[in-house]
Amino acid sequence: MKVAIAGATGFVGSRLVQRLQKEGMEVVILTRSASHAQKVFPSTAFPNVNIVTYTPTTSGSWQSAFASCDGVVNLAGEPIGEGRWTSERKQEILNSRKLGTQKIVEAIASNNPKFKVLVNTSAIGYYGTSETATFDETSPPGNDFLAQVCQAWEAEAQKVTEVGVRLVILRLGIVLGTGGALGKMITPFKLFAGGPIGNGQQWFSWIHVDDVVNLILQALIRSDMQGVYNATAPSPIRMTELSNTMGRVMNRPSWLPVPSFAIEALLGEGAIVVLEGQQVLPKRTQSVGFQYKYPSVEPALAQILK
C-alpha cells in the first residue's frame, strides 16, 4: 500500500510514518518545509519515504503526488492550544482544517480512480464541553468554536464519498506520548511543583499515541471500517486523577494546582482547551473489535514517563 500523509512531521505523524515503513508501505509526505521533513525522515533511515512540498490551503502541482497512492491520512491543522485565540488566529485554525481537507479531497477526486481510503482526523471538541454528560459517536455536536471547527472540517472530508472513496473520520482525544500535551505537563512535576489544572473536575479523554497509530493503520487496511470513530481510550478520567497518577508514576507530589485565572490570562478564550473537557467513550471503535494496548491511564503513563 502507498499512503500519503499530511501533517507527517508532527507528534502523531512522525510515529505513524515509522510504523508504516515497518509494515513495508510506501509513504508520501506532504510538508510545507522539505528541509525540516528531511531532518525528521533522513533518506538513509526512511528509504520508502518520498517528500513533497505543498501549500495546504492552495491547489497546485503537489496534488499530482496522489496519482499513485492508495490512501491518505490527513493529520494537518494549526495547533489549537498555543497562544491566544485572536480573531486572526481562530481563522487560521479553521482554514487550516477546512480548506486543507478541501484541497486533499480535490486532489483525490481529480487524480486517482483507484484511490481506496481517506483517514481524516477530527477532534472530540466536536461534542462541546461538559462536566456531567457522556458522549459517543452518535452524540450531537456542541456549539462552541471548536465544535464549529470540527463540523466544518468533517463536512469537507465527507465530500470524498461522492467519488466512491471510503472515509474514516477519527475524532482524537488528548494524545499521550513523549510530546504533545503531556510534554508540557511533565516539567512542573519534575520540579516538585505539579498539580491539577483549574478545578481538577474537568474530564480528560485521552489515548496513548501507540493506540492512535494502531487505529489509523486499521482504518487504512480494513475495508469494513467507515464513518466516525472516537480515538479515545475506554477509560476517561478527571484532571485530578490524571495529576495524581502522574505524581505516583514519577514519584513526585501532586499538590500545587494551576489556577484557572493563570491559564485564562495566558490563553484567553483558548483556555477552554485545558479548563473544560468532555467524557467521550469509543463505542464504535470498540464495536469493530479494536484492541487497545493501553486501555487505562496508569500503564500508559508508566510506559511514557519511565
Q: Top keywords for this entry?
A:
306 residues; alpha/beta; seven-stranded parallel β-sheet; two-stranded parallel ribbon
How would you briefly describe this protein structure?
Helix content is 39%, strand content 17%.
What features would you describe in this structure?
- Helix content is 39%, strand content 17%.
- It contains eleven helices and 13 strands.
- The strands form four sheets. A seven-stranded parallel β-sheet has the order 3-2-1-4-5-7-11, with helices on both faces. Strands 6-13 form a two-stranded parallel sheet.
Helix-strand string: EHEHEEHEEHEEHEEHEEHHHEHH
Radius of gyration, Cα only, in angstroms?
A: 19 Å
Helical residues, percent? 25-40%
Largest β-sheet summary: 7 strands, parallel
Total number of helical segments? 11
Query: In terms of structural class, how would the helical and strand content be classed?
Result: alpha/beta
Q: What's the multimeric state?
A: single chain
Mean pLDDT: 93
Please give the alpha-carbon distance between the first and last residues. 35 Å
Number of distinct beta strands: 13
Percent strand equals: 15-25%
Produce the secondary structure layout.
Layout: E1 2-6, H1 11-22, E2 26-31, H2 34-40, E3 49-53, E4 71-74, H3 87-111, E5 117-123, E6 134-135, H4 145-158, E7 166-172, E8 174-176, H5 180-190, E9 203-204, E10 206-208, H6 209-221, E11 227-231, E12 237-238, H7 239-250, H8 260-267, H9 272-275, E13 279-280, H10 283-287, H11 297-305
Parallel strand pairs: 1-2, 1-4, 2-3, 4-5, 5-7, 6-13, 7-11, 8-10
Antiparallel strand pairs: 9-12
